[in-house]
Amino acid sequence: MSVIRNVHVRTVHAPAAAVGALLDRLSADDDPVFPVPAWPPMRFDRPLGVGATGGHGPIRYSVTAYEPGRRVRFDFTPSGTGFHEMTVEPLDDERCRVSHVLEADMRGARLLRWHAVVRPLHDTVVEEMLDNFERAATGTLARPVRWSPRVRLLNRLLWDRPVPVAFPENARLVRTAIDWFDRADYRDAYAMDLPPGMPLDPAAWEGVLRGIPVTDRAEREVVLGEDAGHLDFRASLLVDGDARRVTLSSVVRVHPKLRGRLYWAAVSRVHPFMARLMLRRTHRRLALAAPSAAERAAYARVATG
Fold first, then answer.
1. Which of 22, 144, 164, 226 has its CA 20 to 30 A from that of 215?
2. Average pLDDT of 43-68?
């Protein structure tokens, strides 16, 4: 057995009370600290406090100690395997120290996975959290963390994947935009969750299908497509802000000529893979281009006066 201890510390030139108030918003809808949407959000089954259970991505933990404005500790699940915690300590009236400490028991494959995969991701996420503390508390950030090539690769490989869903009932535009919807030869739909910070304007998602023109628009939906000699194709991009989900749906009508049926017989085998791939790529691209959690908090503060 090997006990891993990982420590990150940042001096923030702001009063401890102001920085501690940011700590208290961890996992909230307006969380200004956790680096979402570049990384999976921190979520619990209740507001931040002792007994809350949840985690981020595949990492599970529960809140076992909470001193508002000063400290929060998370114990990993299953119990006894380790913990991580964040603290805010005053240095003087205008400075404080923000610390993140992780301790965990590792052995065998877990220890290898820690060094090869988990540690570079963990270090990057924690440094981005400290960046957000600094940016949100001071309005500036001297040296933002930079992703290493390994972190970029791991982020790409571990990015969420679209899941197949039923053709959405509220994709009303595509249902009414074509008179052959009920006679279509093929339909499918794939969806991905939208963490905080992801764009909710359907126009931002038009690049999912490069080269396919937009045929119709609505407040929550955009339809792309074209008609060809062998088949007619429409794709709906539905952005549901209430459910925080984006859905890519496809509808195909194959022309009865032999050419059309042969063409679709070949394309239909790769279409599901390509639809998922393009949606996932666009989802990641938009997430990485989104403002940081601290920047979004600053925008919200200005907007509300």
1. 164
2. 97
